[in-house]
Design goal:
Two copies of one chain form a homodimer. By secondary structure, chain A is α/β, with parallel strands linked by helices. The first copy, chain A, has eight helices and 13 strands.
């Protein structure tokens, strides 16, 4: 029983064979290069699957289940991803069928990447034991997954809330989501590079200040998540999440300032499965679907 | 089997006998006058219970279950309310024991008023049939209850999130919660009267403008609730919620502006049980506890 996990991010994509316990056995990574279109990305991913299967000596048996974690709005019932934003202009794309066609007999599922990462961290990372768990992926964009007893919380039509676009400052920058001053516009990897592109923001002190701002807004966003969801634990992952050590004091400070009524005294932890959380979670969700 | 519902608000308190189907049979109301202290309020409430029981011709059998909906942070496990804010300086108060002592044999429970109102609207009001339901009480303060399949969503220690204190504008007014520009500071009944106390804000046009502002911030708060919770239906109740007709267009407009990624095309409805929602919900929760 070979499990494959795939994580399609705005910047990089990852493929791995995953053990039933959620350990990555063999992995491969490549730039997503979404601008070349979804067909090119899918071809690259299929090559990567063959490569990891070969490296796992599992080429002959093939995968029994494939889980795809993908950035942005995805209809988990149809497998259609509608994300022209962080996936450079893709039209609505059926991300599931090409993998079903290539690996007949395999169970193939797709899931929002933040939800998949939440499942990964809850099963094998820092979310273990949390009754109400929030996973934040700070990357090119910002994604948030919510679990109760390990189950993904979503709208009754299967929709994902997109809590990365919480409005935090109506006088903030415009976002592709239509809002001004949403969390992603203030604190994503894209927001960081926008700040650093400014010629007046190129030295080390200004880099620190940019990280500080991202941490501040992330702290405020976590206050709002606590007000609505009352989590027991929060994990921060994704590319920018790798800077968690630089951000954690500012995040704590903002949360502490808002502790009077809202229960913000919640552990905020660096994601443990790191970049693997999404593909591990997706692979395990696909395994669950095998029954 | 006589059910009693009590709703202790920052301004007024209500008591009623409630049928097992959630209909209010006899009701009484009085100013909460919290500044006189919790003991005085409890004495008034006990008098009101005797009055409605007498009017219901149920004085001899007494109540079998009493449900108390109360403004502000309450520990539903101990019945202790810790709300010095909208209940004028009350120290932490056991709100349950005096009613247990007065009506021995009766089941007595207490619940955050927004949660109780959510249950009331879900059972007998506009929330019927909603899988994921949000109830907002716009009154002296702002409370929010979240139900999934009719069950109150809360922190794993029983805590209430206090989503009325979502931060919406960090350059906004200071709130007793410790935040600047939280929803309650921008859009509660208190915020409205603060605006109208300003001598330059006394005419009809300025009243309209104040309502418009409250509607605007409430719309933005609902966008954030959609981003985190993905509701199927939202109800607006409470004292200021009675102005819903004046607010609904502005609320819709703000939600529509944010529809690109977040599923904000959710029905937003005036609460149907009105001021009775909290006491109905509390009474039915107490009935459920009887087993």
């Amino acid at each position: 029983m070979t499990l494959i996990g795939i994580d399609i991010g705005g910047t990089n994509s990852r493929v791995g064979t995953v053990s039933p316990e959620g350990r990555v056995l063999v992995r491969a990574a490549a730039p997503t290069d979404a601008a070349r279109g979804s067909a090119a990305t899918i071809t690259t991913l299929l090559d990567m699957i063959h490569q990891v299967l070969s490296d796992s000596h599992a080429r002959l048996s093939g995968p029994s289940a494939i889980g795809i974690a993908i950035s942005g709005p995805i209809d988990v019932n149809t497998g259609i991803v509608s994300n022209p934003y962080t996936l450079g202009g893709w039209p609505p794309t059926d991300i599931v069928s090409p993998f079903r066609a290539a690996f007949q007999g395999a169970v193939v599922i797709a899931e929002n990447d933040a939800n998949a990462a939440a499942v990964g961290e809850w099963r094998v990372g820092v979310g273990r034991g949390a009754n109400r768990f929030v996973m934040v992926t700070l990357g090119t964009g910002i994604g948030v997954g919510f679990l109760v007893d390990g189950q993904i919380q979503r709208g009754s039509n299967g929709s994902h809330g997109e809590a990365g676009h919480l409005v935090l400052d109506p006088s903030g920058p415009s976002c592709y989501c239509g809002a001004k001053g949403c969390w992603e516009s203030l604190a994503s990897g894209t927001a960081l590079s926008n700040r650093l592109k400014d010629p007046s923001h190129m030295d080390r002190a200004d880099y620190s200040r940019a990280i500080e701002q991202i941490a501040h807004w992330t702290g405020l966003a976590l206050v709002n998540l606590c007000a609505v969801f009352s989590p027991d634990a929060i994990a921060i992952g994704g590319g920018a999440g790798a800077q968690f050590d630089l951000m954690k004091d500012s995040i704590s400070e903002v949360m502490h300032q808002h502790r009077r009524l809202i229960r913000t005294d919640v552990p905020v932890l660096a994601a443990q499965a790191g970049d693997d959380a999404g593909l591990i979670g997706a692979a395990l969700l696909a395994k669950d679907r095998q029954g």
